[in-house]
């Protein structure tokens, strides 16, 4: 169940997963690898900054040079 009260400019883990097109486990892996950081919430319900998610979307969409 998603939190009903969230600070403006933040996304829940579920919303983040939907924006990135990945699973909740994928979000946890991004955090573990240091590619995304939590910006609030509780230990069980993390929040992620909208700007961080946008930056990650841009980074993932940019083709890598060989």
Describe it for me?
Helix content is 44%, strand content 14%. It has three helices and three strands. 18% of the residues are buried. The protein is globular. The chain has helices at residues 13-20, 24-32, 50-61; strands spanning 10-12, 40-41, 46-49. The model has no long low-confidence stretch (mean pLDDT 90). A three-stranded antiparallel beta sheet has the order 1-3-2. A hairpin with a 4-residue loop joins strand 2 (40-41) and strand 3. It starts with 9 loop residues before the first strand and ends in a 5-residue tail after the last helix. It has 66 residues and is an alpha+beta fold.
The geometry reads as: globular
The proportion of strand residues reads 5-15%
Q: Care to count the β-strands?
A: 3
Radius of gyration equals: 12 Å
Helix content: 40-55%
Distance from N terminus to C terminus (CA atoms, Å) equals 42 Å
Which regions are unreliable across 5 or more consecutive residues at pLDDT < 50?
none
SS summary, helix count: 3
How are the strands of the largest sheet arranged?
Answer: 1-3-2
Order of helical and strand elements? EHHEEH
Features:
66 residues; alpha+beta; three-stranded antiparallel sheet; 3 helices; 3 strands
In short:
Helix content is 44%, strand content 14%. The protein has 3 helices and 3 strands.
List the helices and strands and how they pair.
Blueprint (H helix, E strand, L loop, with lengths): L9 E3 H8 L3 H9 L7 E2 L4 E4 H12 L5
Antiparallel strand pairs: 1-3, 2-3
């Amino acid at each position: 169940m998603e939190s009903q009260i969230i600070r403006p400019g933040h996304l829940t883990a579920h919303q983040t997963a939907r924006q990135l097109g990945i699973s909740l486990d994928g979000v946890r892996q991004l955090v573990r690898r240091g590619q995304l950081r939590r910006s609030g919430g509780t230990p069980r319900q993390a929040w992620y900054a909208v700007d961080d998610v946008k930056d990650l979307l841009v980074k993932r969409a940019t083709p890598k040079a060989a």
